[in-house]
Amino acid sequence: MPDINEIFTAAVRDLVGDGSAVVEHPCGQVFFVPGLWLGEVAEIRVTGFRKRLGFGELVRLVAASPHRLDAPCPHHGLGKHSCGGCPWQFVSYSAQLSAKELRVRQTLGRLGLEEAVRPIWGSARTLGYRNRAQFKSDGKVLGYVAAGSRQLAPVADCPILSDHNRHTLKELLATLPNNAWRPARKAQWTTLDIDEDIGASEVEPNRRRPFRQANSGQNERMKSWLDGAVQGLDKQLPVLELFAGSGNFTQVLAAAGFTRIVAVEGAAEAVSTLAQLPGVRATTGDLFSARAVDVLARECRDSGLLVLDPPRDGFSLLPALLAECRELKHVAYISCDLATFARDTRVLLDTGFHCSQVQPLDLFPHTPHVELLGLFTRC
Fold first, then answer.
1. What is the pTM of this model?
2. CA–CA dist 69, 86 (Å, integer)
3. CA quadruple 250, 251, 253, 254: dihedral sign
4. Helices and strands, counts by H and E, the chain
5. In sequence order, what are the beta bridge partners of 8?
6. Cα–Cα distance, 334 to 239 (Å, whole number)
7. How many whole angstroms separate alpha carbon 131 and alpha carbon 196?
8. What is the spatial distance between Cα 139 and Cα 29, in angstroms, rounded to a whole number?
9. Assuming Cys at both sites, which of 35, 77, 159, 272 could form a disulfide with 82, CB separation 3.0 to 4.6 Å?
């Protein structure tokens, strides 16, 4: 096994889910290295091991990718004082999209879904797109957390933020040092959430803002996709929507003409917003509780359409729901994690559903994140 701090030269053969490059040491040991791109050759320093995997850091580029460019943000980098929020800013946007689509095709291809995957939808804006953010502060500086660490990386600007949010950031920075942002005892920092509905004076320390999709333009495309997916369905079908939030997709279903919608969300504040939509019965539910999902499944066993937009963990209790809801004929699955989407897709396929399409969408340019819109019909 290679020694810590040993330097070796290798070519990048692949990329993994967190955006790191995959390289192989001459002895055959696989290493994950941030800051490299497909096809590049570099000198790499061994930094550590975890189980059978090795980790390294870039020492020197030997051969750069033709897609490599200078990052547009001064805080981009690999050091402990660099922001880790946009790890792919050093490559062209077209290359980013190609890498995301390839990863989706490779992963879902293992399920036999090569033909179902459509070309990725890129974002019209790669900078200035983000309508919300969470900063961290110790009362002295303000910024994000450096990649792979618990180190606070101060920022003076953030070009992926919308104009409104960049202005809010500027105003927040002007208040430093700020004793109101000193972390509570045993806490490392204070969180500061912003979005386009508030200014700097309305930011409340350690208070989360209501969830919203962070890229408004791409969110509209997701809503249009769902609208197109349900247009041909019988509007009398009972609809079950899980992880409904404040109604981002519920609004689409109501506007499409569905009048029997059960929308389930864990946050009580969001449920009160959902209840105001026509044709919607909003309910609070813990969708990670087997008992709660079992009760919900029995109450909604006549549902014909399932719409779900879970967090990164996916919906691990999907098998229990499908076992009870035997009338389900259509599923629209919006996912923010490829691995859990593939896991839950296998459950749907094994239960007799056919996947007619998977639409990848880039919600977060300059990151390895990819959104997935899947449409399933029971055979």
1. 0.94
2. 14
3. positive
4. 8, 17
5. 44
6. 15
7. 6
8. 43
9. 77
* Beta pairing class for 7-11 and 330-335: unpaired
pLDDT, tens digit (0-9, with 9 covering 90-100), for 152-190: 999 999 999 999 999 999 999 999 999 999 998 888 999
What distance in Å separates the CA atoms of residue 240 and residue 292, rounded to the nearest whole number? Answer: 15
On the 0-12 / 13-18 / 19+ scale of CB atoms within 10 A, 75 is buried
Query: Active-site residues: which are they?
Result: 336
Report the SS3 class of residue 110: coil
Taking alpha carbons only, the member of 237, 213, 207 closest to residue 225 is 213
What is the layout of strands, in order, in the sheet containing 305-308?
280-284, 261-265, 239-242, 305-308, 330-335, 371-378, 353-361
Edge-first strand order for the sheet with 142-145 is 152-154, 142-145, 132-137, 190-195
Helices assigned H by DSSP within the chain: 93-109, 163-173, 216-230, 250-256, 268-274, 290-299, 318-324, 338-350
Residue 45: both structure tokens together: 């320093």
Rg (CA), the chain: 23
pLDDT of 148 strictly over 80: no
What is the C-alpha separation between 26 and 332, in angstroms, rounded? 46
pLDDT for the residue 185: 84
- Domains in the chain (CATH in brackets) are 7-63 (2.40.50.140), 132-202 (no CATH), 216-378 (3.40.50.150)
Name the residue with tokens 């797109």: 129
Q: Is 89 exposed, middle or buried (0-12, 13-18, 19+ CB in 10 A)?
A: buried
How many Å apart are CA 116 and CA 354, to the nearest integer?
Answer: 10
Rounded CA separation 327/235 (Å): 15
Question: Pick from 242, 279, 241: which is nearest to 260 by CA?
Answer: 279
∠ CA 341-212-288, rounded to 5°: 45
CA distance 236 to 54: 55
- Note whether 211 and 245 are within 8 A (CB): yes
Residue 150's pLDDT is 83
